Amino acid sequence: MKSWISGGLRIAAVAAACGLALAGCGKSQDKAATGPTGAAGEPVAIGWSVYAGYMPLPYAQQAGIVDRWNKKYGVNIKMVQINDYVESLNQYTAGKLQGVATTTMDALTIPAAGGHDTTFVVIGDYSNGNDGIVLKDGKTLADIKGRAVNLPQYSVSHFMLARALENAGMSLADVKIVNTSDADLVAAFGAPQTVAVAAWNPMLDDVAKMPGATQVFSSKEIPGELIDGIVMDTALVKANPNVAKAVAGIWYETMALIKAGGAPTDDALGQMGKLSGTDLAGFRNQLDRAYLYADPKAAAAFMESADLASGTDRVRRFAFEQGMFGKGAKSVDEIGVEFPGGKVLGDPANVKLRFDPTFAKLAAAGGL
User: Which of these, 274, 250, 230, 254, lies nearest to 99 by C-alpha position?
Assistant: First the structure.
């Protein structure tokens, strides 16, 4: 769904953000604990990169929605564009940003694995067709067996491929991964030697339109697993919950506008499309394939659901098996992930990723 770097560079980036060797990265001191507290006037930067599910953030800044919530809570939130998705996570991990729009998988494998205690304050969407697998001269997913598959290694596409193969009674051992930048996937598919790709939009649509191409798997088949949201530094959220309240208020006010319909919605979506490099029709097409948690009650329910916990368990097991917790990680349980009600996957003494439905519940109750 977004831009990526190779697994080796990703792990190196985590190590650099920690300032420690990989062997101790997961249990390092939280570097952001002494960062901004969200006190009056102190800037709180939320990073975003171009993806349909993240475009409400820059639109809210442009439309004055951010300013309204800043004034209400006496905070100074700014939405900051970072052109490279992974760089936005690196900056957040290093404390240069206080929040970032990201996937649950990347929140776990970059900041959390880097020792930065991180909390999801908003669950925004899940991919419902914006990711998929395309074969050249193949008709069904079964035809992928024995093929080389071009994708950005260690990415959500890599995880999606693993899940697709699992559902079809196969495994990653049945294919060969060819690490390919997201920016190069379309050109790569045009080469004779490329016979399969896993991609996200807009590259997915571009590849699927090419001669001989057949899409054989869609993220619609694993609903609720490729999840996006907004994370913030846990210490900041605890020190000043008003910052997280304002972020939630910004998000749900913008969601209400998206769902309202009519000319105001068309205008807002058109502006989001323009910000992401497309038009209203193009943006609607992408947004239609992302299941938005526009209703805060539904978002809170999902955070508290067994589905989120089981999906996160799949993600963390995949990440550990692929070495994404670092060379020093001896167990999938090395990093703790906390869910509402105190349920923890992994080490409860080393919780570095949390899902907090507090702010969605406040929004649902009109308490923001």
Answer: 230
| Residues 201-234 pLDDT 10s | 878 988 999 999 999 999 999 998 999 999 999 9
Question: pLDDT of 44-54, one tens digit each?
Answer: 999 999 888 99
75-101: pLDDT as tens digits: 999 999 998 888 899 999 999 999 999
Residue recorded with tokens 């919950």: 241
CA dihedral 243, 258, 97, 235 (to 10 degrees): 30
Give the type of residue at 174.
D
Q: Pairing mode, if any, of strands 118-127 and 227-233?
A: antiparallel
pLDDT over 50 (residue 10): no
CATH of 7-126+225-364, one of 2.40.30.260, 3.40.50.2000, 3.40.50.10540, 3.40.190.10: 3.40.190.10
pLDDT for 199 equals 92
- For 359, which DSSP code? H
Q: Which H or E element spans position 46?
A: strand 43-48
CA torsion through residues 206, 208, 212, 217, sign: positive
At position 237, the amino acid (one-letter code) is V
Q: By three-state DSSP, how is residue 328 classified?
A: coil
Rounded average pLDDT over 167-181: 95
Ranges for all domains in the chain classified under CATH 3.40.190.10: 7-126+225-364, 131-221
How far apart are the C-alpha atoms of 283 and 50, rounded to whole Å? 12
User: Is residue 292 predicted with pLDDT exceeding 80?
Assistant: yes
CA dihedral 78→59→13→107, nearest 10 degrees, is 100
170 vs 26, more confident:
170
Predicted TM-score of the model (pTM): 0.85
How far apart (Å, rounded) are the C-alpha atoms in residues 55 and 280? Answer: 13
Enumerate residues 6+ apart whose C-beta is below 8 A from 27. 115, 334, 350
Q: What is the pLDDT of residue 19?
A: 39
CATH of 131-221, one of 1.10.1270.20, 3.90.1140.10, 3.40.190.10, 3.30.200.20: 3.40.190.10
> Which residue type sits at 193?
Q
Amino acid letter for position 147 = R
